[in-house]
Amino acid sequence: MSELDTTRPVTILLSALGGEGGGVLADWLVDTARHCGHAVQGTSIPGVAQRTGATTYYVEIFPLPDSALGGRKPVFGLYAVPGGLDLLVGSELMEATRQCALGLVSPDRTAVVASTSRSYTTIERMQQADGRVPESKLVEVLRSNARELELLDMATLAQQSNAVVSAVMFGALAGWCCASGLLPFERAAYEATIRAGGKGVEPSLRGFAAAWDRVVNAKSQRDRLMAVAREVSAELAAEAKAKLPVLPPAVAKRLPAALHDITALGYDRLLDYQDAAYAELYVQRLERLLVVAGTDALAAVNEVARWLALWMAFDDIVRVAELKARASRFDRVRREVKVAPGELLRVHDHFKPGVPEFAAMLPSRWAQALHRWDARRVARGRLPYALPLALPSHSVVGLVALRLLGSFKRVRRWGSRFGVEQVLIERWLAAVGRGLGEDAALGLQIACCGRLIKGYGSTNERGKHHLLHIVDQLAFAPAVGDAPARGRAVGAALTAALADDAGKKLDATLVAHGAAPRPVVAQPIRWYARGKRPASTT
Question: Looking at residue 48, what is its pLDDT?
């Protein structure tokens, strides 16, 4: 139950069809407020013929009794206005939805209590085929426009109670106002108003009670579920926050507080990926950028902190083996395949490392020789060398092999790829710093280009190629324009590169901003004879 707002009138719109007793319903609500000592005003707008509009009744009730106002008189409005409605009660689904089209239902304020029953419009009946508007579409409109939505079949409840629909609407309205705290009236006050009418009292009370119970029980159950969901969500959020890594105090002092959260994640990732010295290099790189950019460019440095950590922790065969050998990975596999107690689980990991993976762990001279050897094979029409492997990770042999390969991270620093990646990272960081020196927006866009570096293999290589080409051809090219114009051009190129793996959109964007398209990469053409292996290359 929400706290009652005593600073303004409660605004309620009643929407009913002809013959449903909408006038009686409005009178019941007005009489209840008056008998409880509250100022109230009600007006009605009659609908026109052929179901082009329901008769609506608008009621404003001041939530405090007159005795608490010290002789002051509230000022009421005559008509409902968009954004100023607290509650809409509709006896028919289409007519309730029509109020959304009029702008009277607002997501930040208006609750809707509507009937799911339909009385088809003339236009719906005129169609040769099935011209009915699907109920699901009407409900979706209400759900997307209302702050809260309560649906019930008022026509069926009225029929079961042998009551008029207005009595059911009154019960639904009263139940919602009581459960939500919208009005301070008790159930007995509403029922006393019905009894004062003197006609059809018992059927009306039955219809009132049926709708009251349905709405109050449904809202109470929904509120309980929402409360439980909020508690669980808060507990999970607190648990997740408690598990988040925290920067060592000595490191935290060296960086602005605004960067601590994202930097803590990056620092922890690199500590796990390599060692403390590598994580320290990450922090030093951010410090260098802060010296160049200053604290006024924290948005760009925050982006760098995010993408730099991911780039420095690039995927290689050692990282893959290390992750696959972890106990948490086997626990996750058991959960995913739903291994029952007592059942055996066998896991076979398939690898197909090629020359790039092997060369990555070799010194630069050996790696270049290996790449040249593979290039000669490809030039002769052979496929790039690869070594298919299937390791039974569940076995001692397979697990030891993964652990052994994962331990090679100690020699990763002397591998050719490690050196290449560090050179490219420094080129990107230098470009970010230079861009920030010219214009904050330019530096930010260059920093965001770090998101192009992802995945492994050809995906990773393509991302690095795109990033370097964008920086070289757009970021600092005078022909593109001044610094703000170059920043916009870099942003457009980044969007194009992310939208198209083939690079066609990127090339079009580059050309549109006066830059050169990416150079065409030579690809071998292989001729295949049917049923035979590839034999030649041209």
Answer: 55
Q: For residue 92, count other CB atoms closer than 10 A to its CB.
A: 26
Q: Please state, in angstroms and rounded to a whole number, the distance separating the CA atoms of residues 382 and 538.
A: 12
- Answer yes or no: do 393 and 500 share one domain: no
Q: Are residues 73 and 194 located together in one domain of the fold?
A: yes
C-beta separation of 157 from 210 below 8 A: yes
Percent of the chain topping pLDDT 70: 94
Tell me, yes or no, whether 475 and 410 share the same domain: no
Supply the mean pLDDT for the chain.
86
Average pLDDT of the segment spanning 351-357: 85
Report pLDDT for 54. 66
Radius of gyration of the chain (CA): 35
Does residue 2 belong to any structural domain of this protein? Answer: no
Tokens (6 digits) for 88: 């809409």
Residue where a domain stops, chosen among 417, 449, 466: 417
Among 467, 463, 464, 418, which Cα is nearest to 447's?
467
Quote the CA–CA distance of 494 and 383 in Å, as a whole number.
33
- Do β-strands 87-90 and 111-115 pair in parallel, antiparallel, or remain unpaired? parallel
- Integer distance in angstroms from the first to the last C-alpha of the chain? 78
Report how far residue 205's alpha carbon sits from residue 213's, in angstroms, rounded to the nearest whole number: 12
The single residue listed with the structure tokens 């006609």 is 199
Residue 133's domain comprises: 10-235
**pLDDT by residue (tens digit) across 509-529?**
888 888 878 787 777 777 767
Same domain, 465 and 393: no
What whole-number distance in Å separates Cα of residue 311 and Cα of residue 421? 8
Cα–Cα dist 512/320, whole Å: 40
The number of folded domains in the chain is 3
- Cβ pair 498, 508 in contact under 8 A: no
Torsion region of 162: left, alpha or beta (phi above 0 gives left; psi -120 to 50 gives alpha): left
Q: Where are the alpha helices (DSSP H) in 104-200?
A: 122-126, 135-145, 154-161, 165-180, 187-197
C-alpha span between 449 and 470 (Å, rounded): 9
CA dist 258 and 148 (Å) reads 37
Identify the bridge partners of residue 16 per DSSP, sorted by sequence position.
55
Q: How far apart are CA 428 and CA 284, in angstroms?
A: 15
Helix 483-499 vs helix 416-438: crossing angle, to nearest 10:
140
Q: Output the CA–CA distances (angstroms, integers) from residue 377 to 32, 370, 373, 524, in the order listed.
A: 92, 11, 7, 11
Domain boundary among 364, 384, 417: 417
**175 or 531, higher pLDDT:** 175
**Of 431 and 199, more confident:** 431
Residue 481: left (phi > 0), alpha (psi -120 to 50), or beta?
left
Q: Are residues 290 and 149 in the same domain?
A: no
Between helices 364-379 and 416-438, what is the axis angle to 10°?
A: 100
Under the banding of pLDDT at 50, 70 and 90, the label for residue 535 is very low
Do 296 and 443 lie in one domain? The reply is no
